[in-house]
Every structure is written in C-alpha cells, then in structure tokens.
C-alpha cells in the first residue's frame, strides 16, 4: 500500500470512494464527497492524500485550514477507506502520514470531529480540555484535538472552519 498526494487524475476515484465509504457509515449526511470537491474548488484543501493498493485508490484523507482564535489549525475531515479494505490499518496509515505531512506544512494542531473510540489511538483528546471549543453542539468526547509538535502553543477559543463546511 502506497500513500501519496492526490493528483488531478484521482478526483473521480476519490469522489466515488468517499461516497462508498460513507454510504454505510453510522454518522454521515451523505454529502462528504461533495465537501471534498467543494474544499478543493474553494482552495481550502491543505492536504489530500490517497492510499493506493493494486493501482486502486482504497483510502483518502483531507485536511483543511481552520483557526482557533487567530492561530491556524488543521481540520481532519473526511477520512474514508473502501468498505472492502477496512480494518487493515489503511485509515491509521493515512492519519499518521497526514499528521506528518500537515505538520511539515507548518500546522502544529489537528482537530477532528469523529469517533471517540477511533481517534484517541493517534493521540487525539477531547478538544475542550485543550482549550478548543466546537462551533456546534457536540458531545465533548467527539470533538478532539492533537498537538502535532510538542512546542505547539496552548490554544483558547472556538474552532472556525472554512465556509465549505456550512457551519
Ligand atoms: C473510519 C475508517 C476511516 C477507519 O479506517 P480503517 O482502515 O478501517 O481503520 P484501521 O484499519 O486503521 O483501524 C481499524 C480499527 O478502527 C475501528 N473502526 C473502524 N471504523 C470505525 C468507526 N467508524 N468508528 C470507530 N471505530 C472504527 C475498527 O473497529 C478497528 O478497531 P480495532 O483496531 O480496535 O480492532 C473507515 O472505517 C471508514 O472509511 N468508515 C466510513 C467513513 C467514516 O466513518 N469515516 C470517519 C469519519 S470521522
């Protein structure tokens, strides 16, 4: 399995993969693939990686720029793995490589809205305890953040997503 940045030729396959992955997801509004397209079109894709196996795109992760107060943070969303390829470590590999690359781009925090049983394995903790509040109503355990560098500054404020999220 190879993880690499998306290329223009990947876009239809990414759209299809995200659609398929979220079709059976517990928490989905069915529009995650449109969010990916909108973020890219709006110039708000900070990092988009694909996982490739046997020349097929089997996983995808996107990070968009966000802010907490005036501090830039990365928003991890969405993360998708093909239903036939789940539970093989592809999602974990995308998150870990995503963290490495987004940190190299200068982001020292990542924030995610997601499963409290999945993301803590990467070091995510409830964001509220770290000073980051969600701009919507959500259980504290599902809105999580991680310092990507030990010297990341402490944050205090409400997370502001880019407009494509419609928040
Ligand atoms: C969530 C998802 C990206 C995980 O990818 P993956 O490649 O299957 O995950 P990994 O192989 O890295 O990790 C497998 C572990 O994640 C757990 N897991 C998988 N999907 C999960 C989910 N939706 N919620 C919580 N845990 C999940 C598995 O139970 C497994 O746990 P274990 O290691 O304790 O057995 C994938 O299941 C997916 O695309 N789901 C549909 C879309 C979605 O819900 N995306 C997340 C949005 S926050």
UniProtKB/TrEMBL annotation:
Pfam families: Acetyltransf_1 (PF00583). Keywords: Acyltransferase, Transferase. GO terms for molecular function: acyltransferase activity, transferring groups other than amino-acyl groups. InterPro entries: Acyl_CoA_acyltransferase, Bact_Acetyltransf, GNAT_dom. Residues 1-149 form the N-acetyltransferase domain. It comes from the Bacteria. This is N-acetyltransferase domain-containing protein. It comes from Butyricicoccus pullicaecorum 1.2. The lineage of its organism: Bacteria, Bacillati, Bacillota, Clostridia, Eubacteriales.
